[in-house]
Structures
1.
Amino acid sequence: MTFIFRSTLMRNRSFWLPAISAVRTMSSQTGPTPPFSTLSVSRPVNAVTHVELHRPEKRNAMNRAFWSEMVECFNQIALDSECRAVVVSGAGKMFTAGIDLMDIASDVLQPGGDDTARISWNIRRIISKYQETFSVIEKCPKPVVVAVHGACIGGGVDLITACDIRLCTQDAWFQVKEVDIGLAADVGTLQRLPKVIGSRSLVNELALTARKMYSDEAKSCGLVSRVFPDKDAMMAGALELAGEIAGRSPVAVQGTKINLIYSRDHSVAEALDYMATWNMSMLQTDDVMKSAQAAMEKKNPKEVPFSKL
Ligand SMILES: CCC/C=C/C=C/C(=O)SCCNC(=O)CCNC(=O)[C@H](O)C(C)(C)COP(=O)(O)OP(=O)(O)OC[C@H]1O[C@@H](n2cnc3c(N)ncnc32)[C@H](O)[C@@H]1OP(=O)(O)O
């Protein structure tokens, strides 16, 4: 793992810090974490990685660097055996203003190529690359909790729909803004939002009109599972939740994420078949015996020392 974590002091503190004390160490006043220029990456408590979108002066607008840094970051997290859960949030006034409207012209809208076929091929390649920025979150086997405050616009909705658990503050609002900039949203919202929100009609309304959806409606339609009064409370809640996940068997947790996503995209019969194949090896883990013994002894699962995965 090559991240230079800010919170080196935290490493030697006890595994299960109360979330509220850890949240103070999450603030990234000092800027992005090298080699990244748009992300601050830290380890606020053991086994939990915090990824913060960090261009607060530009409202965390997603510039060219961001689109590749997210891929690099989540590919590293996927391989990091010290990390068992992830929290994503935004620095400054809001979660994100979506795609950087200054950069879009120099990348997506200038694909290169000397005839229609080649230009089209290049546009397709660019769109696929942008899609990977959020698909990488879904492909990462570690569960990702996203914490949204203030605005979550355009690409922000693409991002959060690829996460496993969504939390927000009372002042949060969500906007599928793409039609307002002449685009059909093409990096995940149209594909994932209908699987997150039960009402197809509501998804269509949001995507076709670009109207803002506020936190109360986001909660009632199931886009977020919890609403917090302010950002501090939300970050404490996000850390606590991530800590709960990180304390359990990584074999069980990662297998659960992978199979939940598989079952979303397949029939019940196919997903049961996949599950049986998955668990024919994973059930052989020591974690099952360790967890079962802890349950018999009425111990908290977080007290069980699981090997790294
Ligand atoms: C293949 C590609 C697929 C991806 C598609 C994605 C599509 C989308 O994301 S569509 C959504 C695009 N975003 C927007 O339309 C939002 C535009 N911004 C705003 O409406 C406001 O800035 C906002 C409500 C977010 C914040 O308002 P506030 O008053 O708090 O701040 P401002 O003074 O407006 O902005 C502060 C500085 O940030 C810069 N900025 C804000 N948003 C963007 C952006 N999207 N792209 C680039 N820069 C942005 C703004 O210019 C200010 O900069 P400066 O003047 O240098 O201080």
2.
Amino acid sequence: MARQPLLAGNWKMNLNHLEAIALVQKIAFALPEKYFDRVEVAVLPPFTDLRSVQTLIDGDKLLLRHGAQDVSPHDSGAYTGDVSAPMLAKLGCAYVVVGHSERREYHAETDELVNRKVRAVLKHEMAPILCVGESLQVRESGAHVQHCTNQLLEGLKGLRQEQVARSVIAYEPVWAIGTGKVATAEDAQEVCGALRTALTDKYGSEVAEQVRVLYGGSVKSSNVSELLDQNDIDGALVGGASLNGDEFAKMSALAAGGPLP
Ligand SMILES: O=C(CO)COP(=O)(O)O
């Protein structure tokens, strides 16, 4: 079954709401509507930008999707500073990144917490982008496939098949994030293929064939096509390069199979 490629721009902690509006306008202007039949393009700004981005996308009937970078596992309550899944759903979010390696590292997020966040997202009809990935040390030990597979199965624990089918997985090797060191297409395919095999073993091939598996880590216009050509890579989670409107539009066009805008 053909899976529609997804190109998602994780802006991380960059751009205020005014800068967000300017970037979304630039991306939308550079991408004619016909591209959106062949690729889904999403922006994932900081929480403080989401209302502005939603208003722009709805008002101008843009075909871009938007989402958030994190979520609370709780629906509401005394959790100072947190943002809940119902709040994000109300802001029109299609996606929520869960378990990014920066959150696992800087906020000590465990697989158990990541799993609770994944459930919160799915409960409110959004799709999680569940991130998995190994450190350089784990890769050098040769345990990278096992490590990522464990993170995947722990993150999805207790979900129904229909919920797994709606989820997006992102393989982001920690050593390739923001370093300019992209995994080779073969390295990325090795892990993404193993993740799909693990999904097939646990949930059956009908479910596994629907799940989109993205690669993330120093993706840019010069390497996106080769990565997306791999059998089990269905798109990219882009960090730094998604902050440049022309570059992100170019990558989206390449993901759609061209021509360039
Ligand atoms: O972490 C990433 C996306 O979530 C990747 O970041 P870079 O594209 O900047 O390496």
